[in-house]
Amino acid sequence: MWAGIQELVFGRLTPADFVHDPIMAGAGIGMVGALVLAMIALTYFKKWKWLWKTWITSLDPKKIGVMYLIVSVIMLLRGLADALLLRTQQAAGGSVEVLNADHFQQIFSAHGTIMIFFVAMGIIFGIFNLIIPQQIGARDVAFPFLNSVSFWLFAAGMILINAPLVVGEFSAAGWLAYPPLSGLQYSPGVGVDYWIWSLQIAGIGSLLSGINFFVTIIKMRAPGMTLMKMPIFIWSALGSTSLIMFAFPILTATLGMLALDRLMGMHFFTSDMGGSPMLYINLIWAWGHPEVYILVLPAFGIFSEVVATFSGKKLFGYKSMVIALAAITFLSFTVWLHHFFTMGAGADVNTLFGIMTMVIAIPTGVKVFNWIFTMYRGRVRFTTPMLWFMGFIVTFTLGGLAGVAMSVPAADFQFHNSLFLVAHFHTMIVGGVLFGAFAGFTYWFPKFTGFYLNEKLGKIAFWLWIVGFLLAFVPLYILGFMGATRRLDHYDPSLGWQGLFIVAGVGVMIIAAGVGFQLLQIVVSIIQRKKNRAGEDPWGGRTLEWSTATPPAEYVYAVIPTVTERDDFWESKKKKHHKVAPVYEDIWLPKNSGAGAIIGLLAMIFGAATIWHMVPLAIISFVGIIITLIIRLTTDDTEVKISAAEVAKHELKRSAV
Amino acid sequence: MSDVTLKEEVREKEAREKKTLGFWIYLMTDLVLFASLFATFAVLRTATAGGPSGAELFDLPFVLLETMILLTSSFTVGLAILGAARGYKKQTIFWLLATFALGVAFLAMELTEFSHLAAEGFSWERSAFLSAFFTLVGTHGLHIAVGLLWLGVMIVRLVRFKFKQTDLNRLALFGLFWHFLDVVWIFIFSIVYLIGSMA
Amino acid sequence: MSVRIEHRNSQTRYLSYIVGFILSILTTLAAYLVVVNHLWPMQTLVYIVLGIAVVQLIVQVVFFLHIGRGTHWKVVTFAFAILVILIVVVGTIWIMNNLDYNMMQMTPEQQQIYMLQHEGI
User: Do residues A267 and B40 make contact, with C-beta atoms less than 8 angstroms apart?
Assistant: First the structure.
């Protein structure tokens, strides 16, 4: 009877599942330790109520954005630690075993999954939350409660992806978990289940966020801001959210089917009973290709803002930028087979997708030229954000050329699944998405904090990053070209490749130093913040977010601005309008709500219960989510009013400063 | 009309438009989710692994009846929304109850079909074709179940409380959801059952 | 806050639902009868059934979902969704068929017969 109760409550979880291998356990203990320390600090400084009221229950996108960024940075550190381990193992060659084969596979699977889903997506949603409402002259997003739910689902996914460091194991099937390896027969443990449910839960959060920001841009622009007067960053967000809305359901369906194979003995992707593993590969890449454009389009948008501002010139070729963004958005749904040219398709299929892949490079090239033409004859200031842009130009062009090389199906038979491919996609995502994120972070930081980041440390960090990155990945292009296959934990020393792996290992260490300097930069800047004060418009900005207070008031805009042209803020600064006395009105803002965090917590419990086959707990947590939703959705009292008088008082203080 | 009420009306109208667009877009994303399942069904429809195919399993008159029931419920929910827009509370609740009853009947028929198949050993574990069938049709059925839960909560609130503008707005959104499910069913009926029953 | 009551156009709006309902019944029955009575060979029937389904889709989207009413963004997002769906569904079917074609295991004699039957060479 006890055994029956044990299975009902604990599913397939046993004490032996708690991690006891030194490296994994060390990481797990470190993580839990940090969490415990944080909780002790909160208790000692009596900050629990503050945490609950100001952060956890907040529906303010400025707070939610910061929370996304904090989670992303923590996950970046975890992903980098994984990378350091992988590079060290490969640099050591066959002589020393830093990681055994199974650990190596779990770590590269975790590395990819974390970097894409929790670092890149997190940074993008963080920046969307902080910048989109302000840049379009709005106070909030279209659906503030949904925004909170999306973040807490993201956080739930983040906890599930890190839980294998403490209990269980992670997937060893790569960041996309191809069947049949990821099926029940070959991966019977909890690893792939952790992967599935972490992504399923975070993925639903992403989908809801995509809808949220799309409607925000469509419906909440300031009066007078037509589509063709929007900042290019907003256009890039429109493209990215369109992709999120229409690609993520494919991921939901495919992960769902893999889960059904594993949980209910279905045969979608098994190698027997009629299943088709290739169908999984087809569907997952039908999502996967739009996903990489989801990640990179906002980076393009950030660069458009940064380049125009620091060249002191309006962006070159606004219309062609918009057309290029629209083209890339549509075309990203037409190229997905290039991820599996070598997996059995005939020449006709390969040719079509090869051509579409080459075509999609064209609008991207148009954008690169437009940025360069923006700089031409401008008064260029090489601040840290601009340096990140220059780094992007070098790396992204390199990676893009590699991509065009691989778009030729015949050539891809050499490159597919080699280190050439690995170098290509790292160049695109690090050089494009991550450098874009760093440019955006250093650009917008003063707006939200009121002080500048230390420029000197930022520049050192940049140079360490770019040198380290090239050292880490150019060898991989060479190795891949020579035939090195990806995902191997060591290579035969007689091939004479060890030198290149050691160079790559050194490169990663230099990147790590760069990250160290970035963290140092933040700490030093905070310490020196009184000396580094920044006003409301520290860089001479062109777009509306620079017209708000620094840091922005809770309601952001006391009066919603009226827009008459592109770069309206820049133009109005030039014209020096007579300040008309503003007429203040009552402002309605969303009330705080704990329902988002509760739903996130229940979702995490549901995921864990499903992974470990704890049926009653899964049912209870699922029902709990439904009940919470019903309670929230039948509540009508969801807003709080800030009276016109309070707004006036606040604005008076701002002009006094 | 006072200035304050006008501002409130504008605010309410903007909120309603945002919610309608947002919910419509969610329905579009749900369409893509179903499309992925349809693509899967199309690919796996002949993967019967020696087991039965659609031609051997599907009872077309039964499915035609199911289809007509769901279609009628789509009509009755429209009548309910029109009744609500004209302020007739009793009429609205009557047609909503009719929709609920038809929805329950549809779901009951579907569950009967599923349990018959499972009892004869033709469950989702038997072949890839059956996995695809149960998942596609079952996902639609799950959406219907969620819809019935939503409808039930709404009916209870409408019976107990006075009509508020927010209730009407939510009713309109529910109508969109329910119609959308009938649209998806058109394709399940046509592709899974009609085309799937042809040898 | 008091409820907005509308009386305008109520006749036309009822008409919309009634017309939509009747057309949907007719198209459903048409597809059903065409298949059950096997009025055409299978390949043609597939296209006919799909065609009828698309007609009913348009009927319901216009008369029940009122896509013409309200913001034009409903039409835009619907069109984009249909576009993506067509690309992914048709693309998947084409790709998966193509994979099967290249992965079939046959003896050379079987291959010759297959090529003669399917490709005419």
Answer: no
- Positive or negative, the CA dihedral A464, A467, A471, A477 is positive
Per-residue pLDDT, C3: 61
CB contacts, 8 Å: C92 with chain A: 279, 282-283, 286
Indicate the domain borders of chain A: 47-593+638-656
Residue of C nearest to A347 (CA): C98
| pLDDT above 70 as % of chain A | 99
pLDDT tens, position by position, A566-616? 998 998 888 876 667 788 989 999 999 999 999 999 999 999 999 999 999
In chain A, what is the greatest distance between 2 CA atoms, to the nearest angstrom? 82
Among A372, A240, A396, A362, which Cα is nearest to A317's? Answer: A372
Q: Residue C61: its chain B contacts at CB < 8 A?
A: 183
Mean pLDDT, chain B, rounded, equals 93
Which of B186, B189, B197 would best serve as a mutation to test chain C binding (most C beta carbons within 10 A)? B186
Rounded-to-integer distance, Cα A474 and Cα A483, Å: 15
SS3 A554: coil
Mean pLDDT to the nearest integer, A650-657: 82
Distances (CA, A) of B183 to B72, B96, C55, C58, C63: 13, 19, 11, 9, 12
**What residues in A contact C90, CB-CB < 8 Å?**
none
The minimal CB distance from A246 to the residues B7, B29, B39 is found for B29
Rounded to whole angstroms, how far apart are CA atoms A256 and A235? Answer: 32
Please tell me which of the candidates A220, A245, A274 has its beta carbon nearest to residue B47.
Answer: A274
Query: What CATH number does the domain located at A47-593+638-656 have?
Result: 1.20.210.10
Is the Cβ–Cβ distance between A283 and B132 less than 8 Å?
no
For residues A642 and A589, is the Cβ–Cβ distance under 8 A?
yes
Q: Are A462 and A384 in contact (CB under 8 A)?
A: yes
Q: What is the mean pLDDT of chain A?
A: 94
Q: Which of C84, C88, C96 sits opposite A279 (nearest CB)?
A: C96
Whether chain C has a CB inside 8 Å of the CB on A252: the answer is no
A651: number of Cβ within 10 Å: 17
